[in-house]
Design a protein that fits this description.
Elements (H helix, E strand, L loop, with lengths): L1 H21 L9 E5 L3 H8 L3 H10 L1 H11 L3 E8 L7 H21 L3 E5 L7 H14 L6 E8 L1 H18 L4 H7 L2 H5 L12 E4 L18 E4 L9 H12 L8
Parallel strand pairs: 1-2, 1-5, 2-4, 3-4, 5-6
Helix pairs in contact: 1-10, 2-3, 3-5, 5-6
Length: 258
């Protein structure tokens, strides 16, 4: 009976997905989606695989996800692949994760479909990882497609601190006095020095694996974002899960802090 139930479910899912997709109002589609790709290690434990295999399974789900975003007209996607806290993991685990990230970023650039933009404290990363991220960004900078922010070595607090530091250095180089510096530090000027400067703030932030916390992701930019927490582990995140997140988003009354 269970086998037949699975067969029936697989047969019905395409029709269900099509119905979900048709129900989404085109004018309510988010322009920018941020994703916390959580649950890769738990997925590996659940299937009896090595941790590195969990990371690879998660990386393999990135391109399908970006394709789903293209289908509905999303303009910007930010993928959190590695936090600054993750840099403190055991060297053996971190090395494997960085290898997977490097391969994933190179694969994204090789498609020629997406504009890859690395964001984060890249100076904290090993030289090889930093070089490959920069190369992917340079290779795709003229691509007229979905903008994909690759957040590696990223932390929201670090981003804000870096933005303020950059603003102060800029003003100091221009010969600003202390009083002028104080006048310059406001919301608009700080925003101009974020890793995502010039981009729209995320309309929707998705976190997989059932965790319901922000964890430092896009702290500044997500002030007015809508959040969607999904039980699926990232390697198991399907198109139907994505469409459900979009449906939940389109059904909300966004108030933008009012």
């Amino acid at each position: 009976m269970a086998k037949w139930t699975d067969v029936a479910r697989r047969a019905l899912y395409p029709a269900y997905e099509s119905r979900l997709a048709r129900s989404l109002p085109p004018h309510r589609v988010p322009k920018h989606i941020g994703v916390m790709l959580d649950g890769n290690r738990r997925w590996a434990r659940a299937v009896g695989a090595e941790t590195s295999q969990g990371y690879q399974a998660g990386a393999d789900n990135i391109q399908p996800f970006l394709g789903w975003c293209e289908e509905i007209g999303v303009e910007v996607v930010t993928l959190w692949l590695l936090s600054t806290d993750n840099l403190n993991r055991p060297a053996s685990e971190l090395e494997g994760l960085l290898t997977v990230i490097e391969g994933a970023v190179e694969s994204l650039a090789a498609t020629g479909r997406w504009r890859v933009h690395p964001v984060g404290a890249l100076d904290l990363l090993p030289d090889s990882t930093r070089a490959k991220l920069k190369a992917a960004g340079d290779e795709t900078r003229l691509v007229d497609g979905l903008l994909v922010n690759i957040a590696v070595g990223y932390g929201g607090r670090r981003e804000i601190a870096d933005a303020v530091r950059s603003l102060l250095q800029e003003q100091h180089a221009a010969g600003a006095t202390l009083e002028e510096l104080a006048e310059t530090i406001d919301v608009e000027h700080i925003a101009e020095h974020l890793y995502t400067k010039g981009q729209p703030d995320p309309d929707l932030v998705i976190r997989t694996s059932g965790e319901q916390r922000l964890g430092g992701f896009l702290l500044w930019q997500s002030a007015h974002s809508e959040f969607y927490f999904c039980e699926a582990l990232w390697p198991d995140f399907r198109r139907v899960d994505f469409l459900r997140a979009l449906r939940a988003y389109t059904e909300r009354n966004r108030r933008f802090g009012t």
